[in-house]
Amino acid sequence: MARSERASGAAAAEFLLKRHTLRPAEALPWLIGIGAYFAFPDYMALGTQILIGVMFALSLDLVLGYAGIVTLGHAAFFGTGAYAAALLAARLGWSEPLSGLAFAGVCAALAGFVSGWVLLRYRGLTLLMLTLATAIMLYELGNARADITGGYDGVTGITIKPLFGRFDYDLYGHTYYLYALAVLFVLFVVARRIVYSPFGQALVGIRENLRRMEAIGSPVHRRLVAIYTIAAAMAGVAGGLYAQSNAFVTLSALGFERSASVLVMLILGGTGRLYGAFLGAAIYMLLEDSLAKLSPEFWEFGVGLVLVLTVLFARGGLLGLLERAARRARGLWR
User: Fold this and answer.
1) What is the pTM of this model?
2) Domain boundaries, the chain
């Protein structure tokens, strides 16, 4: 029995050590992203918004998929970053893009830390309602301070300097697409390092069995606040890029619809997988664009139908479905 236990422990340790190793399939999303730049040069504006959606969904995956924090207020951090970058450029005249994104991330991280320190003491439905209420209060605060945020008219007149002082922004959005792809790559590397680190494994432990993690002395609250703050910063960067690429921000950046849509993206792709954010955001936004052209009034019905079918028949999202199909194909091949 002791020998069997040692063998099992060694196998488990070897598995954990190899989990972080890059696999060839992980290059596929990046090859698609680069290929899309050359294959669809007239659709770079849509491509930029898809990449921003991936960033936003990736940030939600850290808190929902890995830490098990259920939230309906994640748009609060996206909107905080968007307004931070917009106001920095439009009101204060600071229009350097990279520092604007950094400022957006810091502001969102601060909002995430303050709210997370209070809210993450609660669990379940209480936490769900508190995150929703926090986002609603922030939305109403933005509406009340229309002298700063512009209210329903939003912040306009955002002018961003050329990237690195050399690369200007063309009408079709080619520069913004490459800019967004590079930012997404940096955020993904950070997220991947987190989830495969001991800290990331502790988050999974908290998600799976909170009481056991508390019983063994794990600083559960501090770890949850830490990942909540990191995810808020990533969402803020996505919001800042949204403000820069669109040259305006309205209260919709803080609205419940944005929190709901990013949750749908993640469920479609698959939670707790990182690359589920890529697949879910791309499918959701392409569906939204195509169905809105066919029926501007009823496009949400189509998205809802796809979501229902995914939940009923694709456990683990569409990425989970693809993984199971690939395993079956390998089994048949053998």
Assistant:
1) 0.91
2) 25-255+269-277
Tens-place pLDDT, residues 232-284: 999 999 999 999 999 889 999 999 899 999 999 999 998 888 899 999 999 99
What HEC string does the chain produce?
CHHHHHHHHHHHHHHHHHCCCCCHHHHHHHHHHHHHHHHCHHHHHHHHHHHHHHHHHHHHHHHHHHCCCCCCCCHHHHHHHHHHHHHHHHCCCCCCHHHHHHHHHHHHHHHHHHHHHHHCCCCHHHHHHHHHHHHHHHHHHHHHCHHHHCHHHCECCCCCCCECCCECCCCCCHHHHHHHHHHHHHHHHHHHHHHCCHHHHHHHHHHHCHHHHHHCCCCHHHHHHHHHHHHHHHHHHHHHHHHHHHCCECHHHHCHHHHHHHHHHHHHHCCCCCHHHHHHHHHHHHHHHHHHHHCCCCHHHHHHHHHHHHHHHCCCHHHHHHHHHHHHHHHHHC
pLDDT digits (tens, 9 = 90+) for 181-207: 999 999 999 999 999 999 999 999 999
